[in-house]
Amino acid sequence: xxxxxxxxxxxxxxxxxxxxxxxxxxxxxxxxxxxxxxxxxxxxxxxxxxxxxxxxxxxxxxxxxxxxxxxxxxxxxxxxxxxxxxxxxxxxxxxxxxxxxxxxxxxxxxxxxxxxxxxxxxxxxxxxxxxxxxxxxxxxxxxxxxxxxxxxxxxxxxxxxxxxxxxxxxxxxxxxxxxxxxxxxxxxxxxxxxxxxxxxxxxxxxxxxxxxxxxxxxxxxxxxxxxxxxxxxxxxxxxxxxx
Length: 243
Hints:
Shape: globular
CATH topology of one domain: Rossmann fold
Distance between the termini: 17 Å
Mean pLDDT: 84
Number of strands: 11
Number of helices: 8
């Protein structure tokens, strides 16, 4: 028997239960880190005892609420982009500056559309990366220049309201995507290439991974509550009890 977090019903963090569980046969998973305890027949490239991990979310240049945004802005800065970061708190603003943002906007206190317009001398930005969702989605589109591109990769403030294509996108020939990391690393070669690029940049000091919060696995419900309350920044890590 082992201890595990189990979910028996729909709901919020309160439905995460710390229970005894029989160890069954392993199944496919994702976004994990740990040690390989067993491998099946025909498996190559991995053996019991190997430390393994999946790559997280890196990339390029604008609106986020500070978790993956930390890596995104560091990388964008290293690539030579002028980075404008939007954050929800003054604490996250300080971290955003450390992560290479040239301009930081508190979107709950300031008109970030007007400020982006001022910073770019009325031209708008080439690209927006938005993981906040409802609170910033419409404004993020307004921040784009003609033929600009927006990537929506999260919704920490809730799902965005529907936007009419004609007035929101067609008016400036904008493009909008909502990528899923799994689809970009669906083959072994794609995963290895992505991991190589990420960890090469980590080793070179281009990317600094911030683990600002750790919780025992038994407190997973509290970790999720803090995440939903947006009290965290950087990476949040659950550590198995007794480790």
